[in-house]
Amino acid sequence: MQIRRTGAVFAMAAMAAGLAACGGGDSYANTLEKVKGAKEITVGTKWDQPSIGLKKGTADPEGFDVDVAKYVVKELAGGQDVKITWKEAPSSNREALLQNGTVDIIFATYSITEARKPKVTFGGPYIIAHQDTMVRADATGISKATDLKDKRICQAQGSNSYKRITDPPPDGKLGLPAKLVGASNYSECVQKLSGGNLDAVTTDNLILAGFSAQEPGKYKLLNDPFTDEKYGVGLKKGDKATCEAVNTAIAKMWQDGTAKQLLEKWYGKTGMEFPTSAPPAEGCA
């Protein structure tokens, strides 16, 4: 009986080793190793933001962040195809999704901030957006960001954009009194703006441009940017190897013209001016 039991233990150990070698277990030290070894990855992105990350029905999400993710992941794998499982990454859950292993990497309008750095290792940034303001096309009395004083603005769950209006530096920007109206995400913010429950939605111009382009003539952007929002690639805290590989991929994406092509693809009709070179990497601390 003892011999049989010992043999069974060795057999199970051998099977586990085989599964690990084939990518069947959680045996990878970081996301880079997983991409190269298992040729698969779970990516978090937005599912509710036109031109950034929008999922329709059973199809994969599509948008600028999604296309950037596809490019970077393929570069991590040395140019080989990788199976991507897409997961929704709402602003309020991004840190938790990385920490609990639900996703391996996040491309989701994820601004690099000092407050987030203790919880997340950021690659990038891959683009610098700028906070702007969107109002209804027939709105009067709001022509610049400082006109938002005492106005109803949206507070999207998990987003810090409203703080740029209401708080002073260093965490905020303008330090204006405003009436905050809660919403679960920016899709709900835009719905409330359409219904007259808000005076304005203020967040990154790439997000607002996507919503505005979806319903031409219904909304207008003030084109009064007042912050720099560094969109980073979210990784589990401490994953420096993957972060450095991500930064190499981002640099190549700008050098080979892909970044410009993707911006034209998703925002070419908005009249926005695009950067011509990669933003400086933050470093993988």
TrEMBL record:
<dbReference type="Pfam" id="PF00497">
    <property type="entry name" value="SBP_bac_3"/>
</dbReference>
<feature type="domain" description="Solute-binding protein family 3/N-terminal">
    <location>
        <begin position="40"/>
        <end position="270"/>
    </location>
</feature>
<feature type="signal peptide">
    <location>
        <begin position="1"/>
        <end position="20"/>
    </location>
</feature>
<keyword id="KW-0732">Signal</keyword>
<keyword id="KW-0813">Transport</keyword>
<comment type="similarity">
    <text>Belongs to the bacterial solute-binding protein 3 family.</text>
</comment>
<dbReference type="InterPro" id="IPR051455">
    <property type="entry name" value="Bact_solute-bind_prot3"/>
</dbReference>
<dbReference type="InterPro" id="IPR018313">
    <property type="entry name" value="SBP_3_CS"/>
</dbReference>
<dbReference type="InterPro" id="IPR001638">
    <property type="entry name" value="Solute-binding_3/MltF_N"/>
</dbReference>
<protein>
    <submittedName>
        <fullName>Glutamate ABC transporter substrate-binding protein</fullName>
    </submittedName>
</protein>
